[in-house]
Amino acid sequence: MWNRPRFDLKVRLTLRVAAISAACFAAISAYFLITADRAAHARIDSIAAIVAKSLELQQGKVQWVAAPRADFPNLDPVAAYVMTPGLCLAVRGTDGDMLQRFCSGVPPATPPPQAFTAFYRSLFDPGREAARPVIVRGAKLGDAVVWLDPTVQTAEAWHEAGRLMLALAIALPLLCVLVYAALARALRPTHMIRTGLERVAAGDLTARLPPFDLAELSAIRDVFNHLAESLDTALAERNELTRKLIALQDEERRHLARELHDEFGQSLAAIRALASSARQTAAQDCPALLGECDGIARTATGMMETLRGALFRLRPPDVEELGLVASLEGLVAGWNGRSRGETRFAIRFDGTFETLPATISANLYRIVQEALTNAAKHAGATKVSLELTMRPEEIALAIDDDGRSADPAGKSGMGLLGMRERVAALRGRLSFEPGPNGGSALRVVIPLAAADRPVLEHAA
């Protein structure tokens, strides 16, 4: 399954705030650039109107005194009042020729970057001229033309944009730090929520979340606590049902063992007795039947040995009287005796088990019994090792074998299901995985506090 990359929520929200802030700064910068461009065009339009009016007055004065002057048009009087760096004034005749032109000097300044210059000129067309006609007594004498030097206008725009970019460079990191700190503080309870979920996932249904300041997190807290309580109740009910079902199963096993011992066992004993009697008769009257009588006796003997093994599995030794250690040692010795060298079983104990509660001892014996059966019969293991370790607050069981780790009967059969049910009823943990060097590895951990809860009864 494809895994999408995961990002920290604080980082993601901070980046989004930074992106929105940068977009706002860009919009503000665009607004200022557009406003500055419109103000510049409005200014040169007004200057062009002033220049045109001044030239009309000059021409009117010349005609009024009837003494034409050779210096018309003269832009010096109006230039003294309106000239700024980069501003150009001109008078264009009716034939298109420039009659007079006057431009102020451009002050030395740091030129803007070429990228900004190209971007600005593609959008705003700096240097565009503003023209106003010069009309005297209904006759057009020419046009008053005003424009700004493109370099100066672009540099002024860059100066304005540069101040905004400097403000952005200072404010944006500071804003990101403040937003991240605020989010980290607001989302601090999520660590507690995660810890609570991990405890529930590990089987600790007593985990509860404290109240939170945020309404959204408080809603999560209410749902979490309600879910944990519901799961705890459901698990307790399930464990009680499991206890009753397995107790019923053990009772059925005891009943079946009694029936086999009383009925089937006596029948086999009678068959052996009859075979012995028939052999004695055959030895006197018909020696040819001696082989058949011996075969019947051997078959009955084999069936009785098989019956003893079945009765032993159905009715194990009393763990309360013998103790868990002696019972497991006897179980392992019995498997070693029946294996005839094909499978070797080894067991090791670490700790003191005399004070172990009887409920845990009885169920551990059943778990080990089922695990050994799976390893020997279903997984085909040739070597099985068991280790039982007593810890301060729990008891751990480890069983490793070299059999077929993918055997369905060992993984999903009724044996493993029964072990899981017993472990769950004891509020423990069970894992069944392929071993590091092949085979299978069964791990069981049962808390000693499970003895204080309603758990499985000991099956004698």
From TrEMBL:
InterPro entries reported for this sequence: HAMP_dom (IPR003660), HATPase_C_sf (IPR036890), HATPase_dom (IPR003594), Sensor_HK_TwoCompSys (IPR050482), Sig_transdc_His_kin_sub3_dim/P (IPR011712)
Look up the domain of life of the source. Answer: Bacteria
Domain named HAMP is located at 184-236
Q: Does the keyword Electron transport apply?
A: no
User: Where located?
Assistant: Membrane
Q: Which UniProt keywords apply?
A: Kinase, Membrane, Phosphoprotein, Transferase, Transmembrane, Transmembrane helix, Two-component regulatory system
- Pfam families according to UniProt: HAMP, HATPase_c, HisKA_3
One example GO MF annotation: protein dimerization activity
Q: Where is it found, in Gene Ontology cellular component terms?
A: membrane
Q: Which organism is it from?
A: Bradyrhizobium arachidis
Protein name as catalogued: Histidine kinase
CDD domains, alphabetically?
Answer: HAMP, HATPase_UhpB-NarQ-NarX-like
Looking at the UniProt entry, the stretches that span the membrane are: 13-34, 164-183
Q: Which SUPFAM superfamilies match?
A: ATPase domain of HSP90 chaperone/DNA topoisomerase II/histidine kinase
